[in-house]
Amino acid sequence: MIKLLSMELISQIATELVDDETLEDREMLLMRLAHKCSPAEVLHELMARMQFCSCDEVFTSLLKVIQVALRRLPVKRARCAEWVYGSIMDYLNKIPLPEVLTKELDDKEYMLVENDESVMRFLKLYLHMLLFLEPLVAQLAASVQDGVFFDTKMTQKNVLFCFILRLMGKLLPMLPCRDPQKLKDRHLPQQEHTSTTYSWQVAKDMTKLATTLVKNPFFLLPYGEKFTGHDKLLKKWSKTEETGDDHEDATSEDYFMNGNEHMMDGLAILYYDLLGNGCSTFNVPLVYEARYVFEMGLHYVVRLVNLPYTVALLKGIRLARSLVEKVKSVPLSARELESPIHISFCGRFIRALELSRNNFNRDTGVRLLRMYIRVFDDEGRYTIFAHLLKHFDGDSVRSFAINEYRDLASAKMLLGHEAPLPLWYSGEVLREMLLSHICVLKEGVETDLVERSFTLTSALSALWVLLKTDQSNRSGVWDCFGDLEKQFLAKLRTALDLSTAHYKNELSAVNRGDRDEQTGDMSKVSISALNGEAPPIMTRENNIDFLNRMILTLEMLEFNLSRISNDIEQLRKARAV
Questions:
Q1: Is the Cβ–Cβ distance between 65 and 30 less than 8 Å?
Q2: Dihedral sign, CA of 465, 469, 471, 473?
């Protein structure tokens, strides 16, 4: 009789899961029914109830009953399991993300994240999810063994694994999950080690479940590249649909490419936990060559740094650092840079650092970028520097690239005074770098010198260091000094005279009262001239302060130009003797 009336009984009892007083009794009754009745019928009724569920206590009670039914579900019913997990994700997606996690966090705010009520709500739900998942994972891991080739079709095992990835991708990119007992990285803020206990536990246990279910998660490493190509293909198909052209069906037998939300984020977090966070003792199988892991892993770094969360950027930096450390002993050639991921990585990573207001993230990111560049050979390093100087317009980025090239070139010049210098730091290549990329005024004497102050200071420094280091002219740097004097130094002096006169005239006009308040000459001043800050309300006092800052920047630049010009002249006289 119970089996015949199972759907009616479950529907009636599940509907009455509303108050705490009767919740436990009705939950026990539902679990008894789930043990006796058809698993598919039980799940059908419970999913109908979950659609209208808005209480976490009722949701977690339903999870216990769902677990019983899923454990009895035939292995071939993968589609039914997918529907169940999708309904669970729908409930989680209805909960607004904690506002604190969507803000830019500074180092001191890390320790307060778990004190937020909405964050704790998510963490409690995830702890319940772990209890829900553990028996399911253990059962499927024991009953379905991995073969020599990874099965990517829709199976209960793959459906459950993707569900775990989606759970990881939804919340963990935002949470600062670090082991509170480990102080391996002396650069990390102390607050991060004394907090995030629950976050760390959730990340650790989720990673353990994933690696229990799929013994070798590195089977899935290429999916970062596949997802990127898949997104481009979908955009192409959507354009084809708009024009009415035919195309092949976008669906695939590969279940991991089914477009589930948070899948890419989940994989990124999984590899971050395995490689960059110490959540697991998992070792990368030796069959995976270091350069392969490095290149495939960069796709997940790009994904993490693209997310609009302070913590996601930090996790991307840590993952990138672990990938770079894997290839430190295997110098990479310039040919490796032919892969599009390197252009994507440089562009997205640098853009994320520029937009971040977190000093720790920026400083750590710059150190990582330096490590990344130096794992390549001389040609590869030159290729990266030339790319940065050619395609990036940001003052800080160009200054960084110039300083790095200067340091590497001068180090090569100091190594051996007899041995020939590498091609990439001498001769025509050095000349091209100096005249076309480093010592450049793109708009001639009309260049905004305030906006380019870091770049110009670095260019002057690079010119001086290279001339002084290579007085014997092994690199040929002195051969192009005449052109540098005409095309760069002379024009820079003229531009400084014009710019300084302009700002001083503006300052005199403001002092005389010839400029109305809030209408100062701001139209040609970039945000970078204000260190990334929005322009202040231009009262007379603010206008005077702003113009004085601009004049001071120009005077510092003029001082550097004058000092370096005098030093270079002394070097020329010494070489002539």
A1: yes
A2: negative
DSSP percent split of the chain into helix, strand, coil, nearest 5: 70, 0, 30
**Residue 484 CB partners (closer than 8 Å, separation 6+):** 434, 435, 439, 463
For residues 57 and 65, give the distance between their C-alpha atoms in angstroms, rounded to a whole number.
13
HEC secondary structure over 512-547 = HCCCCCCCCCCCCCCHHHHCCCCCCCCCHHHHHHHH
Specify the residue for token string 């450390």: 325
Distances (CA, A) of 196 to 191, 272, 318, 362: 9, 17, 17, 22
The reported pTM is 0.86
**Model confidence pLDDT, tens digit, residues 383-434:** 999 999 999 999 999 999 999 999 999 999 988 666 788 999 999 999 999 9
Cβ-defined contacts of 365-373 (< 8 Å, 24+): 365/313, 365/317, 366/400, 368/317, 368/320, 368/321, 368/324, 369/400, 370/404, 371/321, 371/324, 372/320, 372/324, 372/345, 373/404
What are the structure tokens assigned to 363, written together?
């400083």
CA angle 286, 287, 289 (to 5 degrees): 85
List CB contacts of 107: < 8 A, sequence separation 6 or more. Answer: 189, 191, 192, 358, 359, 360
For the chain, which ranges sit under pLDDT 70?
1-8, 12, 14-22, 105-111, 145-149, 178-196, 229-252, 278-283, 416-418, 515-538, 577
What is the C-alpha separation between 450 and 436, in angstroms, rounded?
A: 21
3-state secondary structure 156-220: HHHHHHHHHHHHHHHHHHHCCCCCCCCCCCCCCCHHHHCCCHHHHHHHHHHHHHHHHHCCCHHHH
pLDDT reported for residue 46: 84
